Amino acid sequence: MFEYLYGTVEYKKMDYIAIDINGVGYRVYFPLREYEKIEVGNKYKFYIYNHIKEDTYKLIGFLDERDRKIFELLLKINGIGSSLALAVLSNFSYNKIIEIISKNDYTTLRQVPKLGEKKAQIIILDLKGKLKNLTYTEEEIVSMDMLEDLVLALEGLGYNKKEIDKTLEKIDLSKFSSLEEAIKGILKNMRIGD
């Protein structure tokens, strides 16, 4: 298993590069968004995700360690494979993904090919809870705190976590401007679903 690879880029294709380390060439797949940043002949450090699946072994590299962390979190979401996770990071930088999540911006996330509305909502809901350990701006923390407060309020009203998660998957939270408005909208939706 590799944590990172540091070496000279010998050549690059649209979705992978060959990096030379002491005379050994490694094929490293990377997000397409980084294509222009990588120049043949220069040295780079790629943070590696070792993708092992049945008879396939791929090295997937990221210039930013935070991108690798998001990639790993995406893979833990049911229905998201390495190709779709890489497509997300090919379209958006780490900071843009954080912004999308903090603003519940399903529309922007859906720009990723083969990513429908439902998967976009699942990604946002799932990552909101898991990205707590990463660095956020004050505005992003306020937005995520609102989601936490919303879940706590609904639990306080007697709804269980499973009901809450199921309902939140169906609702676009970005349309609510306040916690009170979100609670009212979600309660209305839960009553209709009963």
From TrEMBL:
<dbReference type="Pfam" id="PF14520">
    <property type="entry name" value="HHH_5"/>
</dbReference>
<dbReference type="InterPro" id="IPR011114">
    <property type="entry name" value="RuvA_C"/>
</dbReference>
<dbReference type="GO" id="GO:0005737">
    <property type="term" value="C:cytoplasm"/>
</dbReference>
<feature type="region of interest" description="Domain II">
    <location>
        <begin position="64"/>
        <end position="141"/>
    </location>
</feature>
<dbReference type="GO" id="GO:0009379">
    <property type="term" value="C:Holliday junction helicase complex"/>
</dbReference>
<dbReference type="InterPro" id="IPR036267">
    <property type="entry name" value="RuvA_C_sf"/>
</dbReference>
<feature type="domain" description="Holliday junction DNA helicase RuvA C-terminal">
    <location>
        <begin position="145"/>
        <end position="190"/>
    </location>
</feature>
<comment type="function">
    <text>The RuvA-RuvB-RuvC complex processes Holliday junction (HJ) DNA during genetic recombination and DNA repair, while the RuvA-RuvB complex plays an important role in the rescue of blocked DNA replication forks via replication fork reversal (RFR). RuvA specifically binds to HJ cruciform DNA, conferring on it an open structure. The RuvB hexamer acts as an ATP-dependent pump, pulling dsDNA into and through the RuvAB complex. HJ branch migration allows RuvC to scan DNA until it finds its consensus sequence, where it cleaves and resolves the cruciform DNA.</text>
</comment>
<keyword id="KW-0238">DNA-binding</keyword>
<keyword id="KW-0227">DNA damage</keyword>
<dbReference type="Pfam" id="PF07499">
    <property type="entry name" value="RuvA_C"/>
</dbReference>
<dbReference type="GO" id="GO:0005524">
    <property type="term" value="F:ATP binding"/>
</dbReference>
<keyword id="KW-0234">DNA repair</keyword>
<dbReference type="GO" id="GO:0006310">
    <property type="term" value="P:DNA recombination"/>
</dbReference>
<dbReference type="GO" id="GO:0009378">
    <property type="term" value="F:four-way junction helicase activity"/>
</dbReference>
<dbReference type="InterPro" id="IPR000085">
    <property type="entry name" value="RuvA"/>
</dbReference>
<dbReference type="InterPro" id="IPR010994">
    <property type="entry name" value="RuvA_2-like"/>
</dbReference>
<dbReference type="GO" id="GO:0006281">
    <property type="term" value="P:DNA repair"/>
</dbReference>
<dbReference type="Pfam" id="PF01330">
    <property type="entry name" value="RuvA_N"/>
</dbReference>
<dbReference type="GO" id="GO:0048476">
    <property type="term" value="C:Holliday junction resolvase complex"/>
</dbReference>
<feature type="region of interest" description="Domain III">
    <location>
        <begin position="143"/>
        <end position="194"/>
    </location>
</feature>
<feature type="domain" description="DNA helicase Holliday junction RuvA type">
    <location>
        <begin position="1"/>
        <end position="59"/>
    </location>
</feature>
<dbReference type="InterPro" id="IPR012340">
    <property type="entry name" value="NA-bd_OB-fold"/>
</dbReference>
<comment type="similarity">
    <text>Belongs to the RuvA family.</text>
</comment>
<protein>
    <recommendedName>
        <fullName>Holliday junction branch migration complex subunit RuvA</fullName>
    </recommendedName>
</protein>
<comment type="subunit">
    <text>Homotetramer. Forms an RuvA(8)-RuvB(12)-Holliday junction (HJ) complex. HJ DNA is sandwiched between 2 RuvA tetramers; dsDNA enters through RuvA and exits via RuvB. An RuvB hexamer assembles on each DNA strand where it exits the tetramer. Each RuvB hexamer is contacted by two RuvA subunits (via domain III) on 2 adjacent RuvB subunits; this complex drives branch migration. In the full resolvosome a probable DNA-RuvA(4)-RuvB(12)-RuvC(2) complex forms which resolves the HJ.</text>
</comment>
<keyword id="KW-0233">DNA recombination</keyword>
<dbReference type="InterPro" id="IPR013849">
    <property type="entry name" value="DNA_helicase_Holl-junc_RuvA_I"/>
</dbReference>
<dbReference type="GO" id="GO:0000400">
    <property type="term" value="F:four-way junction DNA binding"/>
</dbReference>
<keyword id="KW-0963">Cytoplasm</keyword>
